[in-house]
């Protein structure tokens, strides 16, 4: 009986040791996992934005965000249509891919400066035609957006390219104003990126327009 009891106790001791070892090895893993998946990227990016800013930096972000939002909407509208030329479709995809992250970046800037983020509903309520020092900035009117939504194939591509050229030209003017009058280094750097990218796309779209078949 003593022999059986000692064996049983030994087995229990071994089992307890294994269980404790399993808990010990699992604890670091479970604590490390949430840390690695925590939303550190947005706060880190926001922290990287310099707090130095002026009113022009705030205005730049607050007006360029809805400007970008409409460019994304225009592009997604076109991408939802059949019969669009491949080069025009690829351009629309690039605009969505580039301007979506820029919207997020500008909202992070605003938050770093103690300003509220600009949502799509906020942008919809703004005067799109007069958002940059009282000058037109290429934003499409509701009527023009409806025209794009109702157009098909080559007609839709033509409307999209013509309107996006004007849209980009407006963005370049807004961005140049930030380069000339802004204080925040990240905002100025983004403005320079917008100028370079959108001037190149304007030239590209002008070439695409010439290549569309006549109707």
Distance between the termini: 102 Å
Count of discrete domains = 2
Q: What string gives the helices and strands in order?
A: HHHHHHHH
Report the CATH architecture of the largest domain. Answer: Up-down Bundle
Profile the largest sheet. Answer: none
- Number-wise, the strands total 0
Percent range for helical residues? over 70%
Ranges with pLDDT <50 over ≥5 residues?
1-44, 127-135
Classification by helices and strands = mainly alpha
Range of strand content: under 5%
Mean pLDDT over the full residue set: 80
Could you please say which CATH topology of the largest domain applies here? Ferritin
According to CATH, the homologous superfamily of the largest domain is Ferritin, core subunit, four-helix bundle
Helical stretch count? 8
Rg from C-alpha positions?
Answer: 27 Å
Inertia-based shape: elongated
User: In the CATH hierarchy, what is the class of the largest domain?
Assistant: Mainly Alpha
Structure notes:
By secondary structure, the chain is an all-alpha fold. It folds into 2 domains: 1-38; 41-211, Ferritin (Up-down Bundle). 78% of the residues lie in helices and 0% in strands. It is built from 8 helices and no strands. It has helices at 2-37, 40-48, 55-79, 86-112, 120-124, 142-150, 153-181, 185-211. Helix 3 runs antiparallel to helix 4 (86-112), helix 4 packs antiparallel against helix 8 (185-211) and helix 7 (153-181) runs antiparallel to helix 8 (185-211).
